[in-house]
Amino acid sequence: MAAILDGQTLTLSGAVGEIWWLDSWFTYDAVLIALASVEDDSDLTVVINSGGGYASEAAAIHALLARRTGTTNVIVDGIAASAASLIAMAGATLTMSAGSILMIHDPALPFTEGAGTSADHTKTIEQLEALATAYSRVYAAKSGKTADECRAIMKAETWMTPEQAIAQGFADAANDTEGAAVAAFDYRAYAHAPETLRAVASANGWSLKQAIRKPPTASAPAPTGHHKENPTMTDKTKADANSADITAATATAAREAVKADRERHAAIMALDEAKGREALAQHLHSSTEMSVDEVKAALAAAPLASTEPEPSPAAYDKSRAAAGAGLATPGGGQPVESGLSKLITARVERNRA
Predict the structure, then answer these.
(1) What is the pLDDT of residues 210-255, one digit of tens each?
(2) Exposed, middle or buried by CB within 10 Å (0-12, 13-18, 19+), for 4?
(3) What is the value of pTM for the model shown?
(4) CA-wise closest residue to 157 among 81, 238, 224, 213
(5) Is residue 62 a contact partner of residue 32, using CB atoms and an 8 Å limit?
(6) Cα distance between residue 137 and residue 342, in whole Å
(7) Which structural domains are found in the chain, ordered by start?
């Protein structure tokens, strides 16, 4: 994890959100913990080097930084692309190191496949449109442009040098310090990524294809000196008992998980930030594994439904970390477990231990 606090400087490097196939990432939780060691009214410098990541995670981190009463200044050292560029907008000033890159684009889902009804796909469109609207307002507030102007820049997937970012209003200054090497990310996933970034991703084996594989798990060492024996009645009795234990554990875990999910839902819908954003709150509960605090931060950064011409902002992309949640980049993948399903599985494993 790479959210490192050194005095009054917070360095965020790697992917936005827990992406296991990369060597480095940072999360909302890590940033929250780091900020707990800094006075809220003090000046803070945030250094960002990230190729992107989960959109909902970025929105929550942006809200954390933007709510500080002290001055927060951001430095892009290497790259701030996709979701990372939203975090960069939280700075009272945004300075880009020499040779660094800023990229903004429309958020996208990595696991968009042909499954589902027309209503399902319509809901996905509504979610992405609501997220893009929220992003465009953040970019507009920083640049002085209108939200519509920023949305056009997002749709074009715009890559900017320090000079270009300053001219567009997204950055305030550039320094002469040579930027760090760009953070690990599969830049080939972007439609208009510079060839140099594509080449770096290819040379280093940074591939989104790894995201659809399960992370490796440690396997037990093969037994030695083992000889096969005929099963006995005792063996069968133990097997039957184990089966019964597993069934009971599964039922208990399911009850506990459902109870916890209901409590989480009640806590989310009771948030002041959920008022006027009920559809978004419902989506964040059902489609992500974000904590109540993370949902609160994400809701605070989103527009009220009543201010939108659409019926409602149906919300952010799916949650972080291989749960199918809104990786703010194009890509491919496979359907994943729901948050409740994962919660049940986790409780079963814990009860077995």
Answers:
(1) 544 344 333 333 333 333 333 333 334 344 444 455 555 555 655 5
(2) middle
(3) 0.62
(4) 81
(5) no
(6) 34
(7) 3-211 (3.90.226.10), 240-325+334-352 (no CATH)
